[in-house]
Design brief:
alpha/beta, five-stranded mixed sheet, 12 helices, 5 strands, globular
Length: 278
């Protein structure tokens, strides 16, 4: 299943990028329309926009794969709470165009957060008070975890906000690789990270260069998380886990170091392509 999805996604994207001819709508325009339509809860129009954006070939396959791995590392029927629309768009394409990981609930605090539809889906009450802007992200995580029965995650890319959490809340946040899991019950997150690294994440694409990233030509509205920068997030996991593997699983150290080198090469290649405007 993992190999099948990887093959289909990569081949489909290559074909789309090769055959896509109608670029009259830029990536930034697609994303502005998607965000506006999502905020207005016009899901029929949203689905059409997402399909056209995906078929245009303008959304980087590397970023789409990273979003896939974020969802892939979560438990079924869980919730991911994101601070920005940048983390949302790729996951909407995965769920509403490619029809994968549709059981996961997406909550974006930049675009309304917990509205009536999401609260109904999660079977939780609507918050009775209005939170201060600087508290929305933290309080949304607390609210969903406290009132619902689904596991709650947030992206590793939101880790700068994690640093602002109260110490008591930080103690409930466990790094599982590309996502953080909020849990009031302590557990062995090392075992989960190993499971994600070895069994869940699709990382073969880091060894490929199907569509070199070109920052000059990338006209997306959201460009904070470039393919190369996202590759470095994998590197952080591998460096974090290397001491454990050296002590407990020495037979797998070479495998882990190979993935780390692939990430570094991927980042370097992406950066050089961008600098050279290739």
């Amino acid at each position: 299943m993992r190999t099948t999805f990887m093959t289909i996604l990569l081949l489909a994207t290559v074909l789309l990028n090769t055959s896509a001819q109608d670029h009259s709508t830029s990536a930034a325009e697609y994303e502005m329309q998607i965000i506006s339509t999502y905020a207005n809860k016009d899901m029929k129009t949203l689905d059409g926009l997402l399909k056209r954006y995906y078929k245009s070939g303008l959304y980087p396959v590397d970023v789409l794969m990273y979003n896939y791995n974020e969802l892939q590392g979560m438990e079924d029927w869980s919730v991911i709470i994101m601070s920005s629309a940048e983390s949302l768009i790729g996951k909407l394409i995965l769920q509403r165009v490619l029809m994968v990981h549709c059981d996961k609930v997406l909550v974006c605090t930049e675009l309304g957060g917990l509205d009536a539809a999401i609260c109904d889906k999660l079977d939780i009450p609507m918050p009775s008070t209005t939170w201060k802007p600087e508290e929305v992200y933290e309080q949304t995580i607390r609210w969903v975890a406290t009132h619902g029965d689904r596991k709650v995650y947030f992206p590793f890319t939101d880790s700068p906000l994690f640093k602002l959490f109260p110490d008591a809340m930080k103690e409930c946040c466990y790094n599982e690789g590309l996502t953080m899991h909020y849990s009031a019950t302590p557990y062995d997150n090392i075992a989960v990270k190993i499971h994600n690294l070895e069994d869940r994440y699709l990382t073969d694409y880091l060894k490929l260069s199907l569509q070199p990233y070109n920052e000059k030509k990338d006209q997306r509205l959201y460009r904070k998380f470039t393919p190369g920068m996202l590759a470095l997030n994998y590197s952080a996991i591998y460096l974090d886990m290397l001491p454990y593997y050296r002590e407990h699983r020495p037979d797998r150290v070479e495998w882990l170091q190979g993935l780390y080198r692939a990430c570094q090469n991927h980042f370097s290649n992406m950066s050089l392509n961008s600098l050279n405007n290739e």
